[in-house]
Amino acid sequence: MTKPIRVAITGAAGNIGYSMLFRIAAGEMLGPDQPVILQLVELPVAMSALEGTAMEIDDCAFPLLHGIELADNPAAGFKDADVIMLVGAKPRGKGQERADLIKGNGPIFTGQGKAIDENAAADAKIVVVGNPCNTNCLIAMSQAKRVPTRNFTAMTRLDQNRAIGQLAKHANAAPGDVKNMFIWGNHSPTMVPDVSQATIAGKSVADAVDSAWLAESFDKTVRTRGKAIINARGKSSAASAGNAAIDHVHDWFLGTGDHDFVSMAVPSDGSYGVPEGIIFSFPCRITAPWTYEIVQGLPVSADIQARINASADELVGERAAVADLLA
Ligand code: NAX
Fold first, then answer.
1. Staple 201 to which of 16, 177, 183, 326, CB 3.0 to 4.6 Å?
2. Environment class of residue 302 by beta-carbon count within 10 Å: exposed (0-12), middle (13-18) or buried (19+)?
3. Partners of 38 in beta bridges
4. For ligand 1, is residue 87 a contact (CB within 6 Å)?
């Protein structure tokens, strides 16, 4: 029998957690033949809600689910974990600046990085969703020296999926017809959606959508989509974020296939002039389980390069702001 993969998830009783746990247990993340054990981590105050969620998961009788373990601390929750999804964090409060969020959430990831170092499988794969996800990933990575740095990633797949959704809608196509749309940079308003390599049903984006919409609205719509959803729904994106986290891990394990490449925020190796070490979203290709390569040699216009540099500068600034949390 295939050995179960242990998937630890923080913030499991939160909105994103609730939207993704059932799908992971059903096999949508790691495939229909791969058993999973869920290791759900919450704050002590949310354990009762988490127990209720676990009861519901039991009641689904998922054939692939080989166990659910609940923990109110990351040391217990990350024990022997193969995949760790760091979702739990404090949401950005009203009037709170991004810098305050970075300072407020950073310490959570120091502790979780140490817990990964001391408890997780030596080759654990990590995806950070809790914001500011790029810099939180950097903090956790710096504290977990036992785990290879390339195993640390942050999620920009939601931004990619939002871009694909917009392109498909405006081309009267299905999202599955859109290939090679990707995001550079930080998961923040400085992110850079790049359509230069994208195709829609085999056509270039310029040939498939209205040029005025592409020039004037597309980029801003993608970059401000999170805020637009909060304004409309009164709550932040949850199911779409959970879906993107599932897509991120799914492709990392099972490959990018005919998508060719996808957006993942990974430790920069200096590609495209991005300073080494910051967690930056690049186009990544996955051809073997739990590996990725940053796609090299893509043509980058002067405008996109300037925006890549600006997003990198922002991340260098964030790194400086949390210097005291980096090991
Ligand atoms: P919720 O507030 O619904 O849930 C967060 C959960 O995390 C809560 O149940 C809380 O008890 C738990 N938690 C907080 N600190 C914890 C800790 N130290 N250990 C374990 N659990 C902890 O938020 P939700 O809507 O689920 O969003 C979670 C995070 O995702 C937020 O930081 C949010 O900003 C971020 N997002 C990231 C996105 C991305 O694309 N990277 C998009 C969606 C989302 O905004």
1. 177
2. exposed
3. 7, 68
4. yes
Is the Cβ atom of 46 under 6 angstroms away from ligand 1? yes
Whether the CB-CB separation of 27 and 34 falls below 8 Å is answered with yes
- Residue-wise pLDDT for 117-161, tens only, equals 999 999 999 999 999 999 999 999 999 999 999 999 999 999 999
The model's pLDDT over 219-278, given as tens digits with 9 standing for 90+, comes to: 999 999 998 999 999 888 999 999 999 999 999 999 988 778 999 999 999 999 999 999
May I ask the CATH class of domain 5-154?
alpha beta
Q: What is the mean pLDDT of residues 275-299?
A: 97
Q: Read off the tokens for 105.
A: 């959430």
67 CB under 6 A from ligand 1? no
Q: How far apart are CA 33 and CA 253, in angstroms?
A: 13
CA–centroid distance for 200 within its chain: 24
Q: What CATH number does the domain located at 157-321 have?
A: 3.90.110.10
Q: Which residue's CA is the closest to the ligand 1 atom numbered 39?
A: 129
Rounded to the nearest 5 percent, the helix, strand and coil shares of the chain are 50, 20, 35
Domain ranges of the chain: 5-154, 157-321
Measured CA to CA in angstroms, residue 112 lies from 10, 84, 174 at distances of 9, 10, 39
